[in-house]
């Protein structure tokens, strides 16, 4: 067989194999692609995570988790977002100072609850 035939057959065989999705990042990771400009009331925010453009997603964002289990994408440049983050951080500091076991941390995720322990 000539090199051309071997190359052609190899190319066809390789194209039949599916591409691995791991090369493109996790498929279940939903990135923010735009920001909301409507401020969220502080009483509905349960927690937040930070999305970095240096990782999988294209934009930097704060993703707020609401009590209704929704995710809201926002820009840290907005004043209402900075105020909400300051409020959440003060709540988190109060919870950790008191030693309450109500604080849950995960990978780049910080969620707090305001329920009182018995």
From TrEMBL:
Where is this gene product found? Secreted
Q: Which residues form the Chemokine interleukin-8-like domain?
A: 28-88
> What's in the keyword line of the UniProt record?
Chemotaxis, Cytokine, Disulfide bond, Inflammatory response, Secreted, Signal
Highest taxon above the source species: Eukaryota
Per the record, its GO cellular-component terms are:
extracellular space
Gene Ontology biological process terms, A to Z: immune response; inflammatory response
Which named protein is this?
C-C motif chemokine 20
């Amino acid at each position: 067989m000539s090199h051309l035939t071997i190359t052609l057959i190899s190319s066809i065989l390789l194209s039949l194999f599916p591409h691995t999705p791991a090369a493109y990042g996790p498929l279940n990771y939903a990135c923010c692609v735009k920001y909301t400009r409507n401020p969220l009331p502080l009483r509905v925010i349960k927690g937040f995570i930070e999305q970095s453009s240096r990782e999988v997603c294209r934009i930097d964002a704060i993703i707020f988790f609401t009590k209704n289990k929704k995710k809201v994408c926002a820009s840290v440049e907005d004043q209402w977002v900075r105020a909400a983050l300051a409020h959440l951080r003060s709540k988190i500091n109060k919870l950790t100072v008191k030693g309450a076991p109500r604080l849950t941390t995960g990978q780049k995720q910080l969620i707090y609850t305001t329920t009182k322990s018995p």
